[in-house]
């Protein structure tokens, strides 16, 4: 949507309104038409990590997704702002919130914490100006961290659930109750593909158990 490199965040609301217009049936004299797109009911979300996106989603009556899996600092304020200021629209009658959460699941809490160390290292590298590929996991990473690094990780990755199936179940219940999220977007940056698949399989099993009546 940005037409030049000088565009900034101030034009983002106008960009979103313009984008929404391209999904409406095209007028005969409309110079630019979306093909495909015109007349289609394409779901549009606002994804943000601050209250700016929350205000925009509320004003336009759109669903709102917050990047709490890596930028949780303003999550509570953003969600509260969105819900308080929401205006019903032709797309959405009531506020709808999706939150990001890191879930690292394994057979034991210790094994899950080891998997989680890859994401922790990646964040440390990024914040230190040394971004790169996802590092392999290491044992007992937290014992090697200085207080600053530990505090940074605790803040940036606070929306993370790490552990065995029962730990994951309790974490999910707590997170859902605390945030009242309508939907969760789950991510897991796990170095080994097999371990990543197993993590999602464990999560799927936990979710299935939680969804059972009674």
How is the secondary structure organized here?
Elements: H1 12-22, E1 46-48, H2 51-60, E2 64-66, H3 75-85, E3 97-105, H4 109-127, H5 147-156, E4 160-163, H6 165-179, E5 183-187, H7 193-211
Parallel strand pairs: 1-2, 2-3, 3-4, 3-5
Folded structure, characterized:
The protein is built from 7 helices and 5 strands. The protein is α/β, with parallel strands linked by helices and 214 residues long. It has 3 domains: 1-42, no CATH class; 51-63 and 70-95, no CATH class; 101-211, no CATH class. Strands 1, 2, 3, 4 and 5 form a 5-stranded parallel beta sheet that branches. β1, α2 and β2 (64-66) form a beta-alpha-beta unit. α2 packs parallel to α3 and α6 packs across α7. The termini are far apart.
Key features of this structure:
214 residues, five-stranded parallel β-sheet, 7 helices, globular, 3 domains
Quick check: average pLDDT? 91
User: Regions with pLDDT < 50 over 5+ consecutive residues?
Assistant: none
Beta-strand portion reads 5-15%
Main beta sheet: strand number and arrangement?
Answer: 5 strands, parallel
The amount of helix comes to 40-55%
The ordered string of helix (H) and strand (E) elements is: HEHEHEHHEHEH
Euclidean distance between termini CA atoms? 48 Å
Concise synopsis of the structure shown:
This protein is of the alpha/beta class and 214 residues long.
């Amino acid at each position: 949507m940005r037409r030049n490199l000088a565009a900034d965040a101030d034009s983002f609301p106008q960009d979103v309104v313009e984008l929404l217009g391209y999904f409406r049936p095209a007028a005969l004299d409309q110079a630019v038409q979306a093909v495909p797109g015109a007349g289609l009911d394409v779901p549009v979300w606002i994804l943000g990590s601050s209250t700016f996106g929350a205000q925009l989603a509320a004003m336009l009556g759109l669903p709102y997704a917050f990047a709490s899996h890596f930028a949780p600092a303003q999550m509570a304020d953003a969600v509260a702002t969105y819900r308080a200021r929401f205006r019903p629209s032709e797309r959405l009658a009531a506020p709808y919130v999706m939150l990001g959460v890191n879930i690292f699941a394994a057979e034991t809490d210790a094994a899950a914490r080891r998997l989680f160390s890859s994401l922790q290292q990646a964040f440390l590298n990024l914040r230190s100006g040394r971004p790169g590929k996802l590092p392999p996991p290491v044992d007992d990473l937290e014992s090697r961290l200085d207080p600053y690094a530990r505090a940074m990780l605790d803040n940036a990755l606070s929306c993370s659930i790490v552990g065995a199936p029962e730990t994951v179940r309790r974490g999910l219940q707590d997170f859902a109750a605390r945030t009242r999220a309508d939907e969760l977007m789950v991510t897991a940056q796990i170095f080994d593909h097999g371990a990543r698949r197993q993590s999602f399989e464990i999560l799927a099993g936990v979710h299935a158990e939680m969804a059972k009546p009674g």
